[in-house]
């Protein structure tokens, strides 16, 4: 009689047990990822990702899950419309930003007419200067044909040449800023206004200078210092003659022109300007900027209270077609400057509780702290500028210098803030700045990438809080 075989026991050795353990671990990891993804810790697993470009928008991300999506978004300075952030259709895809566009916002123009605080205009200022351009300059193709003009200059230069160097004054301050009181001008430090330029059109450059003279108290304006970054634009050969005529009508030694022997960007030019400056506060302006009523006192008052404050004005876009100011009546809601992993400057909504330090004034007239400055317009104590080491001289041409300076301001005991009561216009030119640079010999892409890498390496090192920047 055959024996019934005994039921065999399944033997699970170490290989079998290890496979089971790996399986259980994978299940656990999956559950953890799902849990954190649903609760926002891993937002890109079960939600939308950040768009590669946020140009034209000020974004503050709150929740990126499609089921509970919330992104606060506004149109950036120079853009208009009704900003919207739309959730992605599929997981991990970027959400969509829509609604903002460049140009004049007709609805905004109508709303401005109803504002309680109208933009006050006044007669042209005390000082006047005629723009004198010969026929060979005025007959150039870049002034006759709009396409050629915008390719070369990025804005309506023909309009700029026709409108004169002194326009009616503009008061872009809101009622809260107009009501603010500042120390007597005799108690505030004097400023050196430094204007860096490279191949800037003569009319925009001189209008910048003339509005500084007309809208700045004489007791506060130490000098206007023009720094030429080795320009080769033909019409700028006429600049010395215009400045000589200007010197005949403004107080003595109020305007100077210095030249660089080479052209490699705004960093070296700004360092030269700060070195040449003769007064306690330096104010850096882009060459295509334009100040408005009451622009300087708010900047100087903050620095007077604390010399380690670096103050940025409210930058108001100037339309590239008709050269009118786009906006006014203060900057609201407040926007901080931040940056992405490519070190690109972008805007984000400020925190009303932690970012507005002046608790004793109306919030619409209060400065707000900002991690990063836009770059082209700011005021700071001259000695503090050099205590930080100035700009890193290894940064070439353009790009990343504003982030590098912002890093060192915050890491080396200073603060960076935006003042809504100081309004300065700026032409955001739409052209390839490097494509029209005849002196550019390098591959600009590699230069800009090197600038970013330099900032990431050197700018984040607290050892560089003095002039001993590693090279």
Automatic annotation (TrEMBL):
| Keyword tags | Disulfide bond, Membrane, Transferase, Transmembrane, Transmembrane helix
Please give an example of a GO cellular component term from this record: Golgi apparatus
Membrane-spanning regions, if any?
Answer: 20-42
Q: Which SUPFAM superfamilies match?
A: Nucleotide-diphospho-sugar transferases (SSF53448)
Which residue range or ranges hold the Glycosyltransferase 2-like domain?
A: 192-326
The Gene Ontology biological process terms listed for this entry are: protein O-linked glycosylation
Q: Could you tell me which PANTHER family the record lists for this protein?
A: N-ACETYLGALACTOSAMINYLTRANSFERASE (PTHR11675), POLYPEPTIDE N-ACETYLGALACTOSAMINYLTRANSFERASE 1 (PTHR11675:SF43)
Protein name, please?
Glycosyltransferase 2-like domain-containing protein
The scientific name of the source species is Cladocopium goreaui
Traced from the root, the source organism's taxonomic lineage reads: Eukaryota, Sar, Alveolata, Dinophyceae, Suessiales
